[in-house]
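Researcher: Structure prediction, please.
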Amino acid sequence: MIDIHHHLLWGLDDGAATLETSLAMARMAAADGITHVVCSPHSNGQYVYQPAVIDKKIAELQHQINQEGLNLKLGRGCDFHLSYDNIQEAKADPARFSINGLGYLLAEIPDYGLSPSLTEVFYQLQIDGLSPILTHPERNATLQEDASRLVDWLRGGVLIQITAGSVMGRMGKKAERMAHELLAKRWVHFLATDAHNITSRPPKMREVFELVAQQYGPDYAHLLCVSNPLAAFLGKPLPGQLEPLGLYDDMKPKRWWQRLTWG
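Model: Predicted structure follows.
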């Protein structure tokens, strides 16, 4: 399994505080069957994103992981907050924040109050060569009350990542309900841990992989936990996806008898 959203690196944000915690998280992830991790520190008003510092920490941690014989490969990404300054930086240097510099961008929207310009923001990021991955929309209070904003974004090519803990009911009932609604519609492209530690936000995916396989089918679980995140890690196009349900229904031409009945 490949985890594309993971606060593994120590001392950079609200994730791992020490190298020892990072190593403990790496061990836990490897034991759970995770083979690739995208280290994705925040870039927002509180935390500064410094690629050179991040790369140095990744190299140090990867060396320690290799020394222990863990089957875990690290990559670099960013928990990218859609602030004006971040957006301008990403447009000027699309490789700076994207996963391994190869185009897929973890994009986080504000917890409350969605800007009407977000559709245009996602479009402009795509024009500049980025593939936005909307992170954990199921945890957004505004979208929990009205998920209809997702329709235009999905139709426009935005990808969706939900948190493993949400599916398992560990992020609240509203997040759990919305996560399963999105999964049932096949509107999700990635599952990720968004791990911050080894206790309340652990780096585990096996349990959610098995639950999704049982409830929504093994092919879908494999896409969300293996095939799609591996493509993002490598900067490749996503493989063929299962057809999303209900996403394009109102765009299908009506048959003659439907036009007579409903106009």
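Model: The longest helix spans residues 51-67.
Researcher: Thanks, that helps.
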